[in-house]
Specification:
This protein is of the alpha/beta class. The protein has a single domain (3-265), classed as Vaccinia Virus protein VP39 (Rossmann fold). Helices cover 48% and strands 19% of the residues. The radius of gyration is 17 Å and the shape is globular.
């Protein structure tokens, strides 16, 4: 990692705790609109091919991560679930269809209407296994729901794209009921240096290549590489969750730390 990259990651790590806004592609301090507009533009363009990209780029491994999310979320029959940055609904539908006791309802939300359109098509095809779902465009940094209105909140691959990550964590804390759980699946930092080097090489070369072939939009996947490499590591995200009031904060690495699943509880 270059000195500039190390400095940017350090800045992003401090910002997620302090509440500063960053350019999600670099980790440098920046106005939030820069990242918000970029993220909306990218994901609205690639929504129709996003699921296929996930399947090919991860060689199907992401499905194992989803199964771990289902286990860690441990949905309960009366849970009111909120899925933030839900994209095409992978986490929502996995928890709805694979949980031993599915939640009572799921609010499927995303910043991008085009992603939600795909999620709603999947829902209408039966992906939720009978669990009632609603769909709404929501900025996770400004959630339009009442305090304590969710018992389980999930967010997959979303925190990395929030320019004001501290505010997004505060909002999740506010909306959770006491005793509620927050589960985050996010790309992270492999702790084993040789594996980290190989992973970053794959991100730099293969992710834009695969994404460009599938969608014709290579630039969006260059951003994906940049945003992953600029995102703080597992311990920093855990510290940020604690800084807004969460307790029982833990994480589990997936595939050697390529991704991590953080879980946290809002105290009673």
């Amino acid at each position: 990692m270059t000195r500039d990259r190390e400095r940017d990651v350090a800045t992003a790590s401090q910002a997620v705790v302090d509440g500063a806004t960053v350019d999600t592609a670099t980790g440098r301090l920046a106005e939030s609109d820069i990242s918000s507009q970029r993220v909306h533009s990218i994901f609205s363009r690639i929504a129709g091919r996003y699921d296929l990209f996930n399947q090919l780029s991860s060689m199907g491994i992401y499905r194992l991560w989803l199964k771990r999310v289902v286990r860690i979320a441990a949905a309960r029959p009366n849970d009111r679930m909120l899925d933030l940055a839900a994209g095409t609904g992978d986490v929502s539908f996995a928890i709805a269809s694979q949980s031993a006791t599915p939640p009572a309802s799921i609010r499927v939300t995303d910043f991008c209407q085009e992603m939600l359109d795909v999620a709603q098509q999947r829902y209408e095809a039966g992906a939720a296994g009978g669990v009632p779902c609603s769909f709404q465009v929501v900025d996770a940094q400004d959630i339009p729901f009442e305090d304590g209105s969710a018992d389980l909140i999930t967010c997959a691959y979303g925190v990395r794209n929030f320019p004001d990550r501290h505010k997004a964590l505060e909002e999740a804390f506010r909306v959770l009921a006491p005793g509620g759980r927050y589960v985050i699946l996010e790309f992270s930092t492999p702790p084993f240096a040789p594996w980290r080097v190989l992973y970053h090489a794959y991100l730099r070369v293969m992710i834009p290549l695969i994404g460009g072939i599938l969608t014709g939009d290579r630039s969006g996947f260059v951003y994906l590489n940049d945003s992953i490499r600029a995102f703080p590591d597992q311990r920093t995200l855990a510290r940020a969750l604690e800084s807004v009031g969460f307790t029982q904060v833990t994480w589990k690495n997936c595939s050697g730390g390529i991704a991590a699943i953080h879980s946290a509880v809002k105290p009673q």
